[in-house]
């Protein structure tokens, strides 16, 4: 908490950019990477907390089908969500949800040999 306050105060006053020199200038006994990760994943004022909306889930499924596990690229389409948060949400919620619906979470194709299943219908069901 005290270090968070120092880090936040320093960034609010000086901005961020050179993470290597920031800890010393801010009076912190941490490495630059630690400060950067703390700021980017927890302290930034624009971070959204709480449940993902249906729209966010839909965006994650569509972008994962297109980009795979490129969490930073996916996060760039979800303002306020971090790449790590999206990755964790995918691995703890969305993968299971797709599997329960009979969709392979890697290929986004049906996990059954029943050719009468329409992939677009299954994906639509997964994101609704």
From TrEMBL:
Signal peptide range in chain numbering: none
Location comes to:
Nucleus
Give all residue intervals belonging to the Myb-like domain: 1-43, 44-94
Recorded GO cellular component terms are: nucleus
InterPro entries attached to this UniProt entry: Homeodomain-like_sf, Myb_dom, Myb_TF_plants, SANT/Myb
Query: Which key words tag this protein in UniProt?
Result: DNA-binding, Nucleus, Repeat
* Statement: the UniProt record of this protein carries the keyword Magnesium: no
Q: What is this protein called?
A: Transcription factor MYB39
Ranges for the HTH myb-type domain?
Answer: 1-43, 44-98
- GO molecular function terms attached to this record: DNA binding
